[in-house]
Amino acid sequence: VSALVAETVQDPIYLQAAKQTADFIFAHLINGVNQVLDAIDSSSNSSCDPGPTLKPFNSGVVIEGLSVLYSITGNTTIQTLLNSIVTATISTTAWQGSNGIINFGGAGDLSLVQGLTTAYLRNATTPELRVDIGHYLAVQFNAVVDLATVNGSDVYGNTWLGPPTSVFAGSSQITALSAVLSGLSLGDSSEPPLPHPHHQIRPHLPTLTKPQKAPLSLALFSRV
């Protein structure tokens, strides 16, 4: 949020808040393979260790924030961290199988799609990784349109794996529309092309080696 406010009002106070937030996340909520963790245990008998739970929501929020922060600063340290997190996010098996379709708790995820779309549209990653993001978003688009849409209607099911239920749920529509809008945004770029609504593309995920934690310090952000 602070990154978006900093971009809008151009106040250094909000920019500093965004940098401090990124610094905290890197120090406390990123595991050894650049995955975003869910929370810090602050109970009285704990040592404030981060919980091991991985959720697409958290990755999406962090990716969006870092994408905006990189857009503002152009700091390559921020981009390096963003690249590492995106790579870990689109290759994890925590919320997707070999087909690459997001399925966490039997549902898709709005925040992850929104975060990756932000990174894609802002050209915040390396060109090669941006192509992989486009492919990943295209898979979600096709899953929603071809697998999660109730036949002959504009009703979307909760799960993007299908088959959809005919029961209308507002939350399912909002989540599914994030994938539809992300697919439409791909039409603004020559790579990858906009997938046809009724053409099932072959799900694509990049072939990745196990990501290593980036040897960097977000304290460098204060020098921007």
From TrEMBL:
<protein>
    <submittedName>
        <fullName>Uncharacterized protein</fullName>
    </submittedName>
</protein>
<dbReference type="GO" id="GO:0005975">
    <property type="term" value="P:carbohydrate metabolic process"/>
</dbReference>
<dbReference type="InterPro" id="IPR005198">
    <property type="entry name" value="Glyco_hydro_76"/>
</dbReference>
<dbReference type="InterPro" id="IPR008928">
    <property type="entry name" value="6-hairpin_glycosidase_sf"/>
</dbReference>
<dbReference type="Pfam" id="PF03663">
    <property type="entry name" value="Glyco_hydro_76"/>
</dbReference>
